[in-house]
Specification:
The chain is of the alpha/beta class. It has 19 helices and 17 strands. Bound molecules: acetyl coenzyme *A, the ligand O=CC(=O)O and magnesium ion. The site of acetyl coenzyme *A has 22 residues, from strand 2, helix 4 and strand 14.
Length: 568
């Protein structure tokens, strides 16, 4: 397998047939050449990415070192908590810049990967916002990333179209479309197909830089009513990371010659350390903020990761860790209080249920779970929520509209001052529930199938009638790891079995057989289930927990050109 660290030693490659990207000094593109991609990878757009990389790489490296240092402290027994050094920010009286009118009403937001047909469907879906995803919902292969950029440019230009050959159906944009937000990758992910000064570029600076460069002018004209572009920012752990984003935005605004505060972003609070930094994150981004969002799935993953060395904080079965657990409810309520106090939106999260075709009763039950989840969110004071699928938008819309009426949001009306009393203990409280063999089996079955899909280019998939993406799969992985590491007893099914490597080995074998029979021999053979099984099993049994499932797996989807040698 080619390790990312070897990329810096490779000599620049000759372009096949004389064709190649016209790159600035210090840049080497190792991704496949394509004429469509070349319209994105222009010399001046790449120069903008290079400038961002050179200006911010040391800051990013430092922030990643700080993450490691915090991990060391948590692994030695420390708990995350509020930082006494920034008490003045938490207690101070200040607000973020006013929410731009174009995005005052975000009661339902649809999310999805930057895939062409889905972008059109999402923009036409009737949701107020579409979050186009380079992150949890996207497998970051060169093809997906570059096609995603092409698709977004066409979407912002208003010219995007798609012909579905199988159904002989044409797709184009409606007159009324959702407002576009883009979610770049997290700070930790490299882009191994673009080397800058001999090192892989920072993935999110590539996503942000290329999208911003090509679209800011048209976006402000067509979508943002003078503001924008708009972003979602994932997986941050500390306000110093938000500060880097703020500086990146200012640099971009300067390059574009647009007013400071034009770019707006919603930060996902989806790591445990970040819940203690919400004021600080908003403060850093106060000129560029449009709120925070409860990224509940990564948040659960982060709870396990943060407490990886705390055997007294093991999770029950994944299906039991929902928003009604005390620590999850506390996080959502404090997020609402924090956002509304600072004058910005407090967005809810994603219910994992998706419509179930061919089974009306099961479908109604799934819709009912979504309805309950959205009702809890709107009553708590959230200003909007996420839908995974167009079929869920009417339910989400109805619940928010019935409870918010004509008001675009609840920023001024639901202050949740009661949440000021929430303590560190509330935010860390151990989740309640039991562990079962079925929990272990489901984690394994879902983790392997998700990874197999991811390796073949799909970053979000339907599995057992639920939406699965990188964040939900992470829960399966780290939960298995945690149970194995501490040899926990499965106390929920009366079997009293302890989770050992032997037991896990048998579960993996049996679940692989089940997957083969569920997907069929042909698909199983053609797919990457065996590779996925190998990666997933290693990650669940490794003595030291890997930080991210996708970091290791990324090595498998890096494909070098012109040689075209995959790592497999
Ligand atoms: C934890 C987090 O980060 S959550 C955010 C990241 N995750 C996501 O964004 C998940 C987004 N959702 C999805 O990817 C998909 O809905 C899935 C994978 C869950 C389900 O996909 P499928 O089973 O293929 O959906 P299904 O077959 O029911 O689709 C029906 C139609 O809806 C469209 N559709 C489904 N989901 C979406 C979506 N999120 N956005 C736009 N269109 C969609 C399909 O393109 C299809 O369109 P067509 O009829 O024109 O062909
Ligand atoms: O990104 C969202 C999440 O729940 O994770
Ligand atoms: Mg997430």
């Amino acid at each position: 397998m080619i390790g990312l660290r070897t990329y810096g030693n490779l000599l620049p490659m000759k372009k096949k047939g004389g064709k190649g990207y016209d790159v600035p000094e210090g840049v080497d593109i190792r991704g496949r050449y394509d004429e469509e991609f070349a319209k994105i990878l222009t010399k001046d757009a790449l120069q903008f990415v290079v400038d961002l990389q050179r200006e911010f790489r040391n800051h990013v490296n430092y922030a990643m070192e700080c993450r490691k240092e915090a991990k060391r402290r948590y692994n030695q027994g420390a708990l995350p908590g509020f930082d006494p050094a920034t008490r003045n920010i938490r207690e101070g009286v200040w607000t973020c810049a006013l929410v731009p009118p174009a995005v005052a009403d975000r009661r339902v937001e649809i999310t999805g990967p930057v895939e062409r047909k889905m972008i059109i469907n999402a923009l036409n879906s009737g949701a107020k916002v579409f979050m186009a995803d380079f992150e949890d919902a996207l497998s970051p292969s060169w093809e997906n990333l570059m096609r995603g950029q092409v698709n977004l440019k066409d979407a912002v230009d208003g010219t995007i179209s798609f012909h579905d050959k199988a159904r002989n159906r044409d797709y184009k944009l409606n007159d009324q479309i959702a407002k576009l937000f883009v979610r770049p990758r997290g700070w930790h992910l490299p882009e191994a197909h673009i080397l800058i000064d001999g090192e892989p570029a920072t993935g999110c600076l590539v996503d942000f830089g290329l999208y911003f460069y090509h679209n800011y002018a048209k976006f402000r004209q067509n979508q943002g009513a003078g503001f924008g572009p708009f972003f979602y920012l994932p997986k941050m752990e500390h306000s110093r990371e938000a500060k880097i984003w703020n500086n990146v935005f200012e640099r971009a605004e300067k390059m574009a010659g647009i007013e400071r505060g034009s770019i707006r972003a919603t930060v996902l609070i989806e790591t445990l350390p970040a819940v203690f930094q919400m004021d600080e994150i908003l403060y850093e981004l106060r000129d560029h903020s449009v709120g925070l969002n409860c990224g509940r799935w990564d948040y659960i993953f982060s709870y396990v990761k943060t407490f990886q060395a705390h055997p007294d904080r093991l999770l029950p079965d994944r299906v039991q860790v929902g928003m009604t657990q005390h620590f999850m409810r506390s996080y959502s309520e404090l997020l609402i209080r924090t956002c509304h106090r600072r004058g910005v939106q407090a967005m809810g999260g994603m219910a994992a249920q998706i419509p179930i075709r061919d089974d009306p009763a099961a479908n109604e039950a799934a819709l009912d779970l979504v309805r309950k989840d959205k009702l809890r969110e709107v009553k708590a004071g959230h200003d909007g929520t996420w839908a995974a699928h167009p079929g869920l938008i009417p339910v989400c819309m109805e619940v928010f509209t019935n409870n918010m009426g004509n008001a675009p949001n609840q920023i001024q009306t639901v202050k949740r001052e009661d949440a000021a009393a929430l303590t560190e203990e509330d935010l860390l409280q151990r989740p309640r529930g039991v562990r079962t063999m079925e929990g272990l089996r489901l984690n394994t079955r879902v983790g392997i199938q998700y990874l197999a899909a991811w390796l073949t280019g799909s970053g979000s998939v339907p599995l057992y009638n639920l939406m699965e993406d990188a964040a939900t799969a992470e829960i399966s992985r780290v939960q298995n790891w945690q149970w194995l590491k501490y040899g926990v007893e499965l106390d929920g099914d009366g079997l009293g079995v302890k989770v050992t490597k032997d037991l896990f080995g048998r579960v993996v074998e049996e679940e692989m057989t089940r997957i083969e029979s569920e997907v069929g021999k042909e698909k199983f053979k053609k797919g990457m289930y065996k590779e996925a099984c190998k990666i997933f099993t290693r990650q669940c049994t490794t003595p030291t927990l890997d930080d991210f499932l996708t970091l290791d797996a990324y090595n498998y989807i890096v494909i070098q050109h012109p040689q075209g040698s995959s790592n497999l």
